[in-house]
Design brief:
homodimer, about 200 residues, alpha+beta, 2 domains, 6-stranded antiparallel beta sheet, two-stranded antiparallel ribbon, flat, PTE-AB_protein (chains A, B), Thioesterase superfamily protein (chains A, B), Thioestr_dom (chains A, B), HotDog_dom_sf (chains A, B)
Chain lengths: ~200, ~200
């Protein structure tokens, strides 16, 4: 598949990255503060009006729908609206993946108050989101594959704070790849994951 | 377990709900606009400064950590920081669950640009989050149970927009309950889920 570049100019891509990265980090801080604030009602109301006005300014010119996917001239995929990795999505931590020559992929991320499920613990669905995305990236190295099934085994709660997730392909059978991974807190594994990922059938 | 009420006064609970609900909705709008805006760089920078100042005001007095769980005098659980259902968490859609006498639980939610994974589709991990939370609520009706394993079968992509999820307990064996559910778009089921939920052992 040939990727049609949306960012014809790499300088323009870099400029947007430098603009939107810090901007979205600021919105992430607001999301955290919205949960944790204990200031008086009148301050909440004043801040609410300020944010509504700021949002109206941003909406003066905007995309009709979601961000989707764009490509750089070098074929790099740009998914800035993505809920897992999106540079422009304040819901995304955002996840950043690393890998080595063996095919192992991993991510380190600090999950704060906005990712809470049971008191003091990461939401089980957020654990699933981190592992789903990591296993998908691991499975798609070289061949694009989509999630078929994902099985998560919750060994114990994952405390909010720094977590590490790692995954590797353990088998390939035709169009199916099996990927296994774990999520860990500093004391060890908290969630085990196994996914079956499937590459699309070749066009006839 | 006796719940210690944190909101001794129900009027105070209602007051806070009426204050923080609309406030957090305003922050959700900002998260959406942050992804979709196409305004000029100087407007982005101006809005960034405005939001940073607003966040500082909120942080003038705040909780040390995450929101955790509180209780109303009637024993109602208040998890306003929760990533799935949190009234004060702009990451949460927030999910609202309904149920009938048969034990079936369901939720209807509109997932917009902030929940994107593949272009135009809901992130697989967000599908997992909705189903994890719904199945957990379904499993915990009457008896508190925690997720042991969760298996998700992705039949096809789930388009962004209105989704419906439903779940029911299909079997109980000692401390284990098996719950099955589905996520659907208007055209039918997109993800099937099965979870094993476990109640804590009785204290010796």
């Amino acid at each position: 598949m040939t990727s049609i570049p949306d960012y014809v100019d790499l300088d323009e891509f870099d400029r947007q990255k430098a603009l939107y990265g810090p901007f979205t980090d600021t919105v992430r801080e607001l999301v955290d503060a919205t949960i944790r604030t204990e200031v008086d009602d009148e301050v909440i109301r004043e801040v609410q009006a300020t944010i509504a006005a700021a949002t109206a300014k941003l909406r003066a010119r905007q995309l009709d729908g979601a961000f989707g996917r764009r490509f750089t001239p070098t074929g790099q995929s740009v998914m800035w609206g993505n809920a897992g990795v999106g540079l422009r999505n304040a819901i995304a931590p955002p996840l950043v993946f690393e890998s080595d020559e063996s095919g192992r992929h991993w991510t380190d991320v600090n999950l704060g108050a906005a990712y809470e499920g049971p008191p003091g613990l990461v939401h089980g669905g957020v654990c699933a989101l981190v592992l789903d995305h990591l296993l998908g990236v691991t499975a798609s190295k070289g061949t694009r594959r989509f999630t078929g099934t994902l099985t998560l085994r919750y060994l114990r709660g994952t405390p909010l704070g720094p977590v590490h997730a790692t995954a590797t392909i353990v088998g390939v059978d035709g169009r199916k790849a099996t990927v296994r991974g774990t999520l860990s807190d500093p004391d060890g594994v908290t969630v085990e994951a196994e996914g079956i990922f499937i590459s699309p059938a070749a066009p006839n």
